[in-house]
Amino acid sequence: MSEFIAKSALELAAGLTSGEFSSVEVTQAHLDRIRDTEEDFGSFITVTDDLALATAKDVDDRRSRGEDLHALAGVPVALKDLVVTEGVRTTAASKILENWVPPYESTVHLKVKAAGLPVLGKTNLDEFAMGSTTEHSAFGTTRNPWNLEHVPGGSSGGAAAALAGFQAPLSVGTDTGGSVRQPAAFTGTVGVKPTYGSISRYGIIAMASSLDQVGPMGRSVADAAALHMLLAGHDPLDSTSLPDPVDDFVALAQNGTLKGKKLGVIKQLIGEGYDAGVRDAFTAVLDVAAAAGAEIIEVDVPSISYALDAYYLIMPSEVSSNLARYDGMRYGLRVEPTEGPVTAETVMAATRAAGFGAEVKRRIILGTYALSAGYYDAYYGSAQKIRTLVQRDFAKAFETVDVLVSPTAPTTALKFGAESASDPMALYLGDVATLPANLAGIPGLSLPAGLADGLPVGFQVLAPAREDRRMYAVAGPLEAALEAAGSRVLDTLAEGLTK
Amino acid sequence: MKYEEAITKYDPVIGIEVHVELGTATKMFDAAPNTFGGGPNSNITPTSLGLPGSLPVVNAKGVEYAIRIGLALGCEIAESCRFARKNYFYPDVPKDFQTSQSDEPIASEGQVEVELEDGTQFTIPVERAHMEEDAGKNTHVGGATGRIHGADHSLVDYNRAGVPLVEIVTHPITGTGERAAEVAAAYVRTLRDIFRALGVSEARMEQGNVRADVNVSLRESPEAPLGTRTETKNVNSFRSIERAVRYEIARQATVLDAGEKVVQETRHFHEDTGETTSGRLKSDADDYRYFPEPDLVPLVPSRDWVAEIKESLPELPAQKRRRLTAEWGFSDLEMRDIVNAGLLEAIEDTVTAGAPAAAARKWWTGEVARLANQREIHPTELVTPAQVADLTALLADGKLNDRLAKEVLAGVADGEGDPAEVMAARGLEIVEDTGALEAAVDEAIAGNPDVVEKIRGGKMQAIGALMGPIMKATRGQADAGKAKELILAKING
After folding, report:
1. Is A421's pLDDT higher than 70?
2. What is d(CA A304, CA A267) in angstroms, rounded to the nearest whole number?
3. What count of other Cβ atoms lies within 10 Å of the Cβ of residue A419?
4. Run of H or E residues at A223
5. Which pLDDT band holds residue B333 (cuts at 50, 70, 90)?
6. What is the CA radius of gyration of chain B?
7. Parallel, antiparallel, or unpaired: how do β-strands A455-462 and B84-87 relate?
8. Are residues B95 and A324, on separate chains, in Cβ contact within 8 Å?
9. Is A18 a catalytic residue?
10. pTM of the full predicted structure?
């Protein structure tokens, strides 16, 4: 069994194509692994055994009939429980959607189904993707497979833990301010936030519409690239979806070279506030890149200093509006007040009071305030101006370098309890390196950059909007160079787990 | 205080917001059918219901219609504009925000020429026309009145949620004085006619396709600053608009005369009593937390497209009236009567079918209107323009005279067929058979020697005494002119 779970998605795809093994075998191995480890990791809100095996069997049958199949057909995948799945409970990790079974299909799941990837289940997250530890879930805690005392990051913590815990070879997450890249960094996996509009948001439960982007995740750059290729492409149901053709990201990752590439180190994202261990690991990766022929240049992106402030105004503003619909009138939780009159208004209030967690409420209140008459210009309006500046600064920086790089997060995975739980501001600061990409709409990727005190560190690669190819063309060879230098992070974990 | 007195004491200022439902095939932001009726919650999609994860996509036809309306009102069409979210909690608003437009409307600054029944004209300044979506519909169950107060529970039908609307907002309309109420109604009627001419909506008031919110305020004099206004919501017929404005002006004048202040609020109009009652307090602090809709990209109608739409605009009702008045040689008064009677289109079609304009007008406003009135229906429901044109042709050809034509018309109205068929079936054609006429003339001459003497003596009007027997003999189908010629020929040898 373990032979299957240790393989990369592309290795599994190759084996399935050659007939070396079947999708049912591969899928069953992952379901067994989930069964055996879920008590420790808690990656999933819902495991969809029957559905996964049915898809696997169908793909095997079609393959035996000689049908033309997608390259990833039969390779299992886990979906963050923010992705709408018709007929399968979709919760957003919120009590307010605890028993919601969608009557329609998301474009992401539609593509996954059409390509024949067995869906293992729906992974845990911070409620409505708000958080960076996956502790803000109404469905229990997800633990970091590297050390169960530590958080997996978030909000796509379940998706990342499923990869690092070898429960799934591929995961679909979402990234609004770093929700794919940060948990990837914390778990030694690869997480991609594509250019805004690269992957359809139709059927992705919205957190902040102008920042949300679906993120492919895997244990290697090429795996994530393959999943990105499957999910990308124009969708007429999403007005913000780009019309661009989809590049061969896998080939770019596999055939790229660092020779002559200019890597811009963002001045503002290294230094104060960053753990020494994180800085050392980051510097070590730069050395490997330089040795492989890359040119390392320090780059100034001044407005990044204000990006966090802008983000924490725009994001909650959109949240306050996007989450208004959870009012107990049409679907999901409905709570009637225990005293006083039962009117639409009191039911809405009681439902929202009971259904939303503290962090969600905090952001709704923040956003409502920021959009209020008299405050709009000072808060939301100013934040949009900063957003424009960040976009401009990035565009300027990319005039001199191919990609920009930084540590993905200032720290490694936080420990449960005291360190993480109580101080929202400290947690918000943890997004400082990732959220500028969401503000600017540019693509970003986190790949493993070694360990610090036994926990993974993430290395972030940013590229200009609609130039995701550039990101892969650097991240792929960088990953290979790091592997050659003996620091392929996940192998360490794989050995431990498969004993 | 009565309206008549109120407007002698105060200067009324009105402002009107008109919502028109566009007649697109699908809703504004999703593919659900945009149709009236159907079972509750049958015309819906995940987007109409605001399901988690659903997204809006702009209906291009809806945008085109909004641009048509904007251009027809002489507005500037924005080079780029955005949708905005208007956030408020209400069960019939599926997302708990309405997708609308805030500070970036698609069309701004235009005007509408309005003509009252007596021909007085007013220019209504239009501030903006913007696109938005309609809400669903609440039905309150269990109460005596059907209103929310006293109801046991409410049901929501989302069929209407997401139906495309264009909202047209006027600047404050001043200078109407005692005509304020009439102007308000005439303005909405004019818009209704424009919507129909543009083909953007069926614009049926009774189906709620067109709804008006009427703002009214009073001030001491035209020089004084604007007074506090009330907004009477959802007034749905021209008559109601006029009554609501009259009522509000009278009510506010009474309040002011008593030394009290008008409260800024929304009010409801009641058809049965003609009164408005207080709704909820409304203040400028009403906070909808508008912000640009992040799920939609900015709308940038290309100048070529706008020019193309402008090119394709049909002739608008006012232009058409001016043109036809000149072409047909009617007086302004005649034209106004035609328009007020709702007969413009029928007469135009009748003329197109070959009838002279004067004849078409004469028949539609005369005998056709009279017959229709007896039956309590509109003239256009009685006969078709083609039938009226046929009738005038039979008259021109001398096959009918006025009296016979009326009989034919009655037959047509009774569903006996087209004029020619009725004429034949009822045997009403004017007799051109000279033999029959001659026989009748001879008989009349032979039977009335004293009359013949008078005619011989030069008393030409005595001919009339012979016409009676001739008509009787020919059952009225004799051509009076021909009969006269024959009589003279025979008597004078």
Report:
1. no
2. 10
3. 16
4. helix A221-231
5. confident
6. 31
7. unpaired
8. yes
9. no
10. 0.88
Tokens 């912000």: give the residue. Answer: B291
Is B289 in contact with A372 (Cβ distance < 8 A)?
yes
Q: Which residue has the higher pLDDT, A59 or B492?
A: A59
Contact B446/A at CB under 8 A? no
**Closest in A204, A321, A376 to B53, CB measured:** A204
Under the banding of pLDDT at 50, 70 and 90, the label for residue A498 is very low
Q: How far apart are CA B321 and CA B120, in angstroms?
A: 15
Residues B289, A373: C-beta atoms closer than 8 Å: yes
Q: Which tokens go with B238? A: 């021209």
* Phi, psi of B124, rounded to the nearest 5 degrees: -100, 120
pLDDT at A499: 40
Helices and strands in chain A: count of H runs, count of E runs = 19, 11
ipTM over 0.85: yes
- Residues 62-121 on B with a CB inside 8 Å of A are 85, 87, 89-91, 94-97
Handedness of CA B186, B187, B192, B197 (dihedral sign): positive
Calpha distance B194→B203 (Å, rounded): 9
Active-site residue flag, A113: no
Q: Do B53 and A318 touch (CB under 8 A)?
A: no
Whether residue B150 lies within 8 A of chain A, CB to CB, comes out as no
Judging contacts by C-beta atoms under 8 Å, the chain B residues touching residue A380 are 291
* Residue of A95, A239, A314 to mutate when probing chain B, most B C-beta within 10 A: A239
Q: What is the mean pLDDT of chain A?
A: 95
Q: List the Cα angle B423/B427/B430 in 5-degree steps.
A: 80
Instruction: Return contacts of B276-281, CB within 8 angstroms, 24+ apart.
Output: B276/B230, B276/B232, B276/B244, B276/B247, B276/B248, B276/B251, B279/B233
Is A64 catalytic? The answer is: no
Per-residue pLDDT tens for B224-272?
A: 999 999 999 989 899 999 999 999 999 999 999 999 999 999 999 999 9
Task: Identify which of B57, B85, B97 has the shortest CB distance to residue A239.
Answer: B57
pLDDT at A352: 98
* β partners of residue A232: A199
Q: Does position B330 have pLDDT exceeding 90, yes or no? A: yes
Asked if A150 and A144 count as a contact pair (C-beta separation under 8 A), the reply is yes
**Taking CB atoms and an 8 Å cutoff, what residues of chain A touch B97?**
321, 324
Distance from CA of B70 to the nearest CA of A (A): 24
**Structure-model confidence comparison of residues B97 and B438, the more confident one:** B97
Catalytic residue among A23, A132, A155, A220: A155
Name the amino acid, one letter, at A297. Answer: I
How many other C-beta atoms lie within 10 A of the C-beta of residue A491?
14
The confidence band for A489, taking pLDDT boundaries of 50, 70 and 90, is low
